[in-house]
Amino acid sequence: MTTFALVGAGPGLGLATARRFGATGHAVALIARSAEKLDGLNADLARDDIQARGFTADVLDIESLTAALYAAAADLGPIEILQYSPVPRADFMKPVLDTGVDDLDAPLAFSVKGPVTAVNAVLPGMRQLGRGTLLFVNGSSAVRPNPNVAGTSIAFAAESAYARMLHDTLAAENIHAAQLIIPGAIRPDAEHSSPEVLAQRLYDIHQQRDGFRHYSEPLPDQP
Questions:
Q1: Which positions, given as ranges, span the membrane (predicted)?
Q2: CA–CA separation, 101 vs 70, rounded Å?
Q3: Which of 186, 2, 147, 178 is nearest to 84 (CA)?
Q4: What is the pLDDT of residues 132-168, one digit of tens each?
Q5: At what angle do helices 13-22 and 195-208 cross, to 10 degrees?
Q6: Least packed by Cβ within 10 Å: which of 60, 111, 158, 221?
Q7: DSSP code of 144?
Q8: CATH: 3.40.50.20, 3.40.50.720, 3.40.50.12160, 3.10.129.10. Which one for 3-215?
């Protein structure tokens, strides 16, 4: 058995993707800051007979994130799929002219140092398996900078560049890095962006291994 590791586990998209990958026989490692939240997600997945375990970590804390991913592999089996999709904090969303140098520290740690830490933790195991998938989930500001949310626009662009370099560099090792852009809000009633539809899309990206950047729906036209 191999493991699907979810960094940024939550009750919406996170739970849906955990359920989708768990249904195919993968063990599920849920990583989030709140132990209480993780307990609730584990209980939900257990009702579907999915083997899941929670590991507390903060993506802004390199040591805790590394330790959580190492523990997940040791407890559940080698990590074959990593999904990095934590939700950015509200204070990352300042307008560009209100964004100072210090305002970029946390967004860049969240969207660059966090992914680099996670990938470095799981890559040796994927190489031993001879396969792997790295899934990065971002909003539209990753590809269309939005001056109203400067922190995420800058940090998501950097994360996109890192993920693209992984895609190009690791393809020869049968390790597929891909990005899913979700332009709008994730809502249960959304045709293209409900948690279940997005979970299936991420599973398809993992299975089909076709291209780097994918969109849950087209970006809206700019005025």
A1: none
A2: 33
A3: 178
A4: 999 999 999 999 999 999 999 999 999 999 999 999 9
A5: 50
A6: 221
A7: S
A8: 3.40.50.720
